[in-house]
Design goal:
alpha+beta, 9 helices, EC 2.7.8.7, P-Pant_transferase_sf
Length: 275
């Protein structure tokens, strides 16, 4: 999905990156001062690595895809935390992107026309409680249909994986529209055919203007992509988009284009692209 389309799906495996303090500082030095400060606020080393790589990916995206000079790249965030570029791109009227990180992976996705949401989850066994106890903590975020599908998935490991698939999709949608943590995830209900042809009901109504994909990154990580119309963005995010009006034909072509997965980057490639 590379090329001049404005569509990007980039992924970094940070488990393979074991920088010395000097190497980490050198990579962080590529960020503006306020971004370095945001990275430094994380206490755990793995969290700092994820935050740093996420910010490097966002800058690489603006530089490589939109040809924005590094010195002019300014990533802002809406009150709900949705990142956006301060400088608009005339070539892509509704260009937007979303970054996500959990576990071993950091990723970013961009679209020139549709809203895009990306979520990455690590399917890890809960500590100190059973799978049933763990997923029960999230029952209020799931519909009755989703809950039934999860608890009937099979073994505890299969139940856990099923739960994370639904959770990943819900998060991707919320990120795509730029909503905050207060968005009611119970308002969303997903249906699928063996996790293909995934569809969404919003407040009980089927939406035909959204598409979803699930990917297995490895044995314990999943990623989901959500794509939908720019008019569905929340107000604060909508104001950052140069154009939220698209024709039915444009939307259809964008939604029906195939998803080909992620391009892998190394941290070294990221840093070299910004030097």
């Amino acid at each position: 999905m590379e090329g001049e389309s404005g569509v990007r799906r980039w992924l970094v495996d940070i488990a393979r990156w074991r920088p010395s303090p000097a190497q980490f500082d050198a990579a962080a030095a590529l960020l503006p001062a306020h971004e370095r400060a945001a990275v430094a606020r994380f206490v755990k080393e793995d969290d700092r690595k994820r935050a740093l790589v996420s910010r490097l990916l966002q800058r690489a995206l603006a530089h490589r895809v939109l040809r924005v000079p590094l010195r002019r790249i300014s990533v802002r965030r809406t009150p709900e935390g949705k990142p956006y570029l301060q400088e608009n791109c005339s070539a892509f009227p509704s260009f937007n992107f979303n970054a996500s990180h959990q576990g071993d992976f950091v990723g970013i996705a961009s679209e020139p026309l549709c809203l895009v949401g990306l979520d990455i989850v690590s399917v890890s066994k809960p500590q100190g409680e059973s799978v049933a106890e763990f997923i029960s903590n999230f029952s209020s975020y799931l519909t009755g249909h989703e809950w039934d599908c999860i608890v009937r998935a099979g073994t505890p490991c299969e139940v856990l994986a099923e739960f994370y698939r639904y959770w990943c999709l819900k998060e991707a949608f919320v990120k795509a529209i730029g909503a905050g943590v207060g968005f009611g995830l119970h308002r969303l209900e997903f249906h699928h055919e063996q996790w293909t042809s995934i569809s969404i009901c919003i407040d009980g109504e089927v939406s035909k203007k959204w598409r979803f994909w699930l990917f297995s990154l490895d044995q314990k990580h999943l990623a989901s992509i959500a794509k939908g119309p720019p008019e569905d963005a929340v107000d604060s995010f909508k104001k950052t988009l140069p154009n939220v009006t698209v024709t039915e034909e444009q939307l259809h072509l964008s939604l029906e284009s195939p998803e080909e997965g992620f391009t892998l980057w190394t941290v070294e490639q990221l840093t070299q692209s910004q030097e």
